[in-house]
Design goal:
The two termini are 17 Å apart. Helix content is 24%, strand content 16%. The protein has 1 helix and 2 strands; from the N terminus they run E-E-H.
């Protein structure tokens, strides 16, 4: 099972990433750090993470 994590993009804006199974990195390679206590709500998602997640789900269906 994959988890989502609200990290940041390159500019520091909040963004949802997909975590690896060990929960230390994102699928796009960003290191997971402690989430800030008060962050702005966002619906922005990391496209590289989502692409990797989609590929992983497609391979499990084969």
């Amino acid at each position: 099972m994959h988890e989502m994590w609200c990290g940041a993009d390159a500019s520091g804006e909040p963004m949802w990433h997909v975590l690896t199974a060990d929960r230390t990195l994102t699928l796009c390679g960003v290191e997971k750090r402690q989430e800030p206590g008060e962050r702005a709500p966002t619906d922005k998602h990391c496209f590289p993470c989502m692409k990797e997640f989609q590929a992983a789900m497609a391979s499990t269906r084969s």
